[in-house]
Write a structure and sequence with these properties.
D-Maltodextrin-Binding Protein, domain 2, globular, 2 domains, ten-stranded mixed β-sheet, about 45% helix, single chain, alpha/beta
Length: about 325
């Protein structure tokens, strides 16, 4: 018995020592920050705003890699195919890690394959429209969309891919109102916005940055509605969809966070959590992101991050089930 206990404590001591050593040596080479969309979109702006500061806290370069496609699923799968050693960080959201596996049959991972290390932004959502879209508020949008559907010319809405959050929102809105709309998927926010400005698509429900606010101010786009419970300062003329009778309770936002493979050693996760928390608390980073019309929450403990991720997974899976969202 004493021999068995001695062996157990020796093994435990060895594991603790190995973890402490790993924490001291990680990272010993450059770290990749994987962004699951092309350069130029909101996700890319976040990554390139903070990667240099994160590199200072980690003591190694942090290289931003953009890889779009499959609603972020291609980048997520590449992260899982990489060693679970913390050297590849995924900058993602419920869009890529919860919704994409529910709608894309080619995606084989589950949300549980990733671990949320820290959040960085909470982004309000806005309905953007082509500049000549003939509506100015949420009620007018619903009236126009209803008539367009009756005339067999449904409103077209852009997303960053099938099963993405923006696709889910469009289908959810259509289901709640009984108004048919046509989904137009893109590989990222930047190409979708380009086609929206060119008038190739009618609307897009999306997170936004300062550049999108400027596009509305300059008349390149319209913002008839927001998806928050109240009006937003950045789009004073836009009314909440929540204010309409048909869409009471239609309130959503999107958050971005940093994830690693679930099998990443705890010591490495702790190092990343500490560094990412310091980045989130950095006044310059907070100011830069807030200047892009983003909200930066205070960093939270790992246990809190785990609960946030589990709660979001349950919520969006329930919506997808109610919509009968099927993998395609």
């Amino acid at each position: 018995m004493k021999s068995a206990l001695k062996s157990f404590f020796c093994v435990l001591s060895g594991l603790l020592l190995a973890g402490a050593t790993l924490a001291q040596t990680f990272p010993s080479k450059p770290v990749t920050l994987m962004v699951p969309y092309p350069a130029g979109g909101v996700s890319d702006v976040i990554a390139r705003t903070l990667n240099t500061t994160l590199a200072k806290h980690l003591g190694q370069p942090v290289i931003v890699e953009n890889l779009g496609g499959a609603s972020g699923g291609i980048a997520a799968q590449k992260v899982l195919a990489s060693p679970a050693d913390g050297y590849t960080i995924f900058q993602g959201s419920p869009n890529e890690l919860i919704l994409a596996p529910l709608s894309n049959a080619a995606i084989k991972y589950k949300s549980e394959d990733f671990r949320l290390v820290q959040m960085i932004t909470v982004n309000p959502l806005v309905m953007l429209a082509r500049k000549d879209f003939p509506v100015a508020n949420a009620d007018q949008f619903l009236a126009y969309a209803k008539k367009a559907a009756a005339d067999r010319k449904p409103v077209t809405y852009a997303s960053v891919g099938p099963g993405s959050m923006y696709h889910l929102l469009g289908e959810h809105l259509s289901g709640l109102t009984g108004i048919e709309m046509t989904h137009v998927p893109y590989k990222g926010g930047a190409p979708a916005i380009q086609d929206l400005m060119a008038g190739q698509v009618d609307i897009m429900m999306t997170v936004y940055g300062k550049s999108y606010v400027q596009m509305v101010e300059e008349g390149k786009l319209k913002a008839p509605a927001v998806l928050s419970a109240e009006r937003q300062d950045n789009f004073k003329g836009a009314t909440p969809l929540n204010d309409t009778k048909a869409l009471k309770g239609f309130v959503f936002d999107m958050w971005a966070g940093f994830f690693v493979h679930k099998d990443t050693p705890e010591a490495v996760v702790q190092v990343l959590h500490k560094a990412l928390s310091e980045v989130a608390n950095d006044p310059a980073i907070r100011a830069a992101l807030e200047a892009q019309a983003m909200q930066v929450p205070r960093p939270q403990p790992l246990a809190t991050m785990s609960k946030v991720y589990v709660d979001n997974t349950s919520r969006y899976r329930a919506i997808a089930k109610a919509m009968n969202l099927q993998p395609q």
